[in-house]
Fold these 2 entries.
Entry 1:
Amino acid sequence: MRFEYLGIALKSIMERRMRSWLTMIGIFIGIAAVVALISLGQGLQKSISDAFAALGTDKLLIQPKGQIAGPGTQTSTIQFDQSDLDVVKHTRGVEEAIGWNVRMAEIRFNDQTRFFYIGGIPTEDNAENKLYTEISDHKIEEGRDLKSGDTLKIAVGYSLAHDKKFDRNIRVGDRVLINKKEFEVIGIYESLGSPPDDTAIFMSRQILQRSLELGDTIDTIAAKVSAGEDISIVEEAVKKKLRNHRKVEENKEDFSIQTPEQFLQAFMTVLSIVQTVLVGLAAISLVVGGVGIMNTMYTAVLERTKEIGIMKSVGARNYDIAVLFLIESGLLGMFGGIIGVLIGMGLSKLVVMAAKAAGYGIIQAFFPLWSIIGVLFFAFIVGALAGALPALQASKLQPVDALRYE
Amino acid sequence: MKRTGFVLAAMITDYFNYAFSHLTKRKLRSWLTMIGIFIGITSVVALISLGQGMRDAINAQFSGLGSDKIIIQGSGGGFGPPGSFTVDPITKDDKEVVDGVAGIDVTIGRLMRAVRIDYGDETDYEMVLSVPPDRKAIDLIVEVNNIKMLSGRMLSPSDKNKVIMGNAWIEKKIKLGDTIFINDKGFEVVGLMRKTGLPFIDGTVMLPEDSLRDLIDVKEVYDMIAVKVTNPKDLNIVTDRIIKALRKHRDVKEGEENFQVQTPQQVLKTLDTVLLAVQAVVIGIAAISLIVGGIGIMNTMYTAVLERTREIGIMKAIGARNSDVLTMFLIESGLLGMAGGLIGISLGVCLGLIVEFIAVNVSAVPVNASFSLFLILGALSFSFLVGTLSGVFPAMQAARMHPVEALRK
């Protein structure tokens, strides 16, 4: 019986091919936009949380307050120095702690001057370097990584060696002037997929501090918690020791401590809001598509008034007629949904390719199964809901009136 | 047969009447079709009006800077307050060089630094701005930032260890005559500013340049220099002169300047471009629903053509031309689009005003929805265009019908 309904519905859809196509186009445009936005949003969230997962759940990031424009902002009067790093290092429960600096510098290469970030990182061959490697996720593509004893040596981000940031790409062995001092390029890093990281230049922290006359200023401290310690207890301990060392009262700390998760959480919240707004706007077109289905179904009921009259006079109940039309509109919605999902996936792949070409390899498309099934189910619901009123109207037709209709 | 103007006018009236009578006959279908259009127009109109309002507000803020100011900063790229990422900072020497350029009325050197502020039992970490010990420069700062005092006074050239604070500090229980501590040094609050609604101004803290220099131990550096030119007409010439003079003084080649010289208009342009791009993405996504609405019109018109096959046959049999049939259906679809557009614009205006009301009264964000005539006429003609374009294929199908075939149906 039910399969019969399905057959009748399919036949009606095929009969008015043009109208069915136009109705489905109305649905699949909206679904494609929603699928593309969701998959790109999910992909971005996934690659960011993967990047943070590499940091592990046992790290603490400590920064001075007042760095309004981000790390290394030189206008802040609140800074860390070596003594702060030592305090963190010697806190109970901290296995190892490192500090680094990020600054803007004047880079001269190939007779051209540009401004890029330089990072001062631990390069000594010890536990500090090991922790930095664990956190930074930097892998050497060509040449070698920085190591202890390197003085006027630098390793550069992927884009500087591949994307013509100067008229000529930087290669291993090249010489580069940083704030008028000559450095030799000894390594090139693999791409991290984000332009600020991929255009940065790295050298030993001590060398950076010396060349920029920073004294022993440190911009950011990262600490690794010993295995088996509770990270929140260690966080409190670090906070207390730094407070004493910097002579500030409780709740008036001039520094902030965050775990990568907290950092990630704050970021994800913003990302989710943006995604919700955009998907919401795209979903408006789904409402419009639903109205289109409703229109098509009303027309179908009108055209088939006589048919409905005949069906009723040979024994069809109100219920049967309603189900027939609901299946038809639900199918319209679902077919539109299937095409929309396919187009949406294709669209997001295109965006990923375009983003990659622009240096944003961090943008990925990600299609969780739940989202695809959810979207299809949603499309069916939109179709069925849009068909509800026309189906009800059809089911309530009086057989005699319906048969009389011209 | 040539048609006279009079006949043509009568015919067009007839076309409209014909289209109108059909639209009202299939009331439900016409409504549903129009809903498809007006949902899209509503969201687009509301989004454009709010975006435009935001850009207007920013423009108005910048226009206070006038068209006779120039801002000089060290280079370094990156986003943030002036000086944040500077490699070769601007110094007192540079300021002297700028002072010597012809056509300049006033130059102001300023420092912006993040500091710790202790007041009462509270501690904040905020940016503070320096005020130079020069009457003319102080007047210019007042003019540019549109500073109006609520109580107390503006800083004077002879002040030491005094501050003026923005209105937001009143909410933090700061009173005139209070002492606050900046990086552990005491400062007396001698003035509190009126509320402007702009977080950057309302949260501001200004103190004498010398006091700030003592505090942070910076002797020579400025984070930015602001210049007012004597004659606004010479703005570009003076800008070029400053660039040349600084290039010479700092010994850098053209195209490799380690400093930036910008007019507020240039800064505004950059900011506006970013805002415009964000707006374009948001409106583009909302506009997808207009395409879907257009497809709805197309569908309705195909159905109308199908239903009226016989009618078209009769009209053609008694002498209607292809172009007559085409025009009739195009007018009908255009009307659908425009009627949807009219309703959409009204709803969009309401929505914009509601958002404005909520933003101002609930979250205290000064958002102004701006409805230009251009926006309203643009939305109206766009919806008419969507309607007409969607009707083109169905109308062509109707126009090409063979009268005999059509009558046989």
Note: Strands of chain A lie at 59-64, 94-109, 112-121, 140-143, 153-156, 175-178, 181-189, 201-204, 220-225, 255-258.
Entry 2:
Amino acid sequence: MADTPFQVTEQQPRWEDRISVFDVLTNSAMQFVANVQEYSVLSARSLANILHGPHYMQDLLDQMDDIGVGSLPIVILTGFFIGVVMVLQTGSQFTRFGQSALTGDVVSIALVRELGPTLTGIFVAGRCAAGIASELGSMLVTEQVDAMRAMGTDPSRKLVTPRVVAAILMQPLLTGLADFVGLLGGCAASVFSLRLSAVEFWTRAIDALEFGDLMQGLMKPLVFGFILATVGCYKGLTVRGGTQGVGRATTQAVVISSVLIIIADTFLTKLALFLSDKIF
Amino acid sequence: MATAYSELYESPAIEFEGVRVGFDEGDVLRNVSFRVMPRETLVLLGETGTGKTLSLKLAAGLLKANAGTVRVLGKDVGAMAERELLSFRREIGFVFQEGALFDSMTVADNVAYRLLEDRVDPDEIEPKVREALRFVELERTMDLVPPELSGGMRRRVSIARALITRPPIVLYDSPTAGLDPVTSQTIITLILRLRDIYGVTALLATHRLQDGFALANFHFDKNSNRVVHDGKHGNRNHSNAESTRFLVLRDGGVCFQGSPEELAASGDPYLKRFLV
């Protein structure tokens, strides 16, 4: 009966051999380290590719269009309403102390330093990291990535670098826009809800900002753009298990990039505060 | 084993020597050795999961063997860095199982991909693309995108894409899998024409024995522009039967290697399953 394909042989591990908490933990730890290594190599290569050709300008422009222009509606809508909510939440507190004019200061600092970069990062991650992971994942399972390699193209150049560079370039612009639209929303809420004058709101909002705040607000998106694009690409290019795997990779790309953005935000805030203390 | 006439004085186009490939689940290929001489077609036969696609990917350098050497056109593919491989792969055409066309590009751009990558003058690209698509009789689909094509058409475009740079070696991964008999016949005819018009060396993975026998028993006659049967004995004006050989993979190893006649005459019960 050696020919029967469904034969159970004696080499199959026995049940008690397979269960070992220690083995499971070491395997997961090793897997985790291997994943981090792979991710780091891919990320480093995506940037190193910029230094020497060939470059794919058309792909870069397409990606800038997709990530930048494509994310405009979501960034403008959410930015505006976050500004409105910030004013509604803080304005009532300031009014209790008769300091409703301070609303402009708080809204602008919170938006430019923190909420603008982080929320834009997370929204764009939700949209683009998912898009990138599913697109590259589908290409991988339909052998398009192999076909690309078979035709002499380095997928990290053609697929990864344009996406990473586009996200790094677009993220600060989207964040700047989100900040501005957020302040517009804040202004509208201040005028209609707190009965402040628009001029007063804008004067205070702009006066409250220092160079360090702007630096912080525009440094973070560079990193967030890098994170969301590299995580999306990594998850897409390491899909296992067909179309089901693509779905899983897409979800993971959004979750991991969002979490990494929040974690990176903490360290970047600390770094920015340190730098603005020392330099500015 | 029948020795191809070319083997006497030419070096092999593709050569596997003691190749082993293993994943976490165990070895997929064990001690696999074979050689494909120039202008010869080697049909890799085997059930699903016996390492046919893997062998093709090894030959193209898309995967590396754990042990053994893979030499293509005299170069050790396993020892080459990815950067070298990228340019080396231009010598090889690869027809993937489902075509693997780029969904975001038109058929014309898919076929022109290599030329576009090489920054060839657009005026030169257009006639070449048209010629390649005419070869697979799909000239009218130039402006369509792959999702608009049927499965058979996608594979034909994939063949056009593989032949655009006239590579000396073409690797076919189950080109007829999942196609109806008529479309399969069209694909095999294309492979015959590619072999007999351009003289390409081919490694063809398939689980359909009739594909292999079609390649062995027919040839494309340039004069009459038709596919012609070679006849039974001594009637061959082409050396197709000699230049088409079979290699059967089973459980990670080579289970049979030889000519179509030897395969047909084999008494091995496993091989007979393919012959039914």
Note: The first strand of chain B starts at residue 14 and ends at 23.
